[in-house]
Design brief:
mainly alpha, about 75% helix, 5 helices
Length: about 120
């Protein structure tokens, strides 16, 4: 019974971690793009400018820098939001699973969301 409760509680932590991680990643993406210098154009002296200089100023279409410029200027599209949310959910779920491992070693709780989370 202890093992089943540990698995169930870990599942809830992973799901909550995935939800939070996905939401935070989508919300943070525009802030990160702006901080990197991709807001509406390339900001002089920024990380974006450094990346652009690697191409000698002429950024090829389809490159990572071109995609970041587009996302910074127009915002993330649906596919980009889905990709960012998936990455955030993956990180959040793993963080929740790690929390489960630490807590489950000392826990004998029954499998109930109110006891697990």
């Amino acid at each position: 019974m202890k093992q089943r409760a540990k698995m169930c509680c870990g599942y809830f932590r992973s799901v909550i971690g995935a939800l939070v991680g996905g939401a935070v990643a989508v919300a943070a993406a525009p802030v990160v793009l702006t901080a990197a210098g991709f807001a509406g154009g390339v900001t002089a002296g920024s990380a974006a400018a450094s990346l652009m200089s690697l191409y000698g100023g002429a950024v090829p279409a389809g490159s990572v820098v071109a995609a970041l410029q587009s996302a910074g200027a127009a915002g993330l599209g649906i596919a980009s939001k889905a990709a960012v949310a998936s990455a955030g959910a993956y990180v959040g779920a793993n963080a929740g699973a790690d929390a489960k491992k630490r807590k489950a070693e000392n826990s004998v709780l029954e499998c109930q969301p109110s006891n697990c989370c």
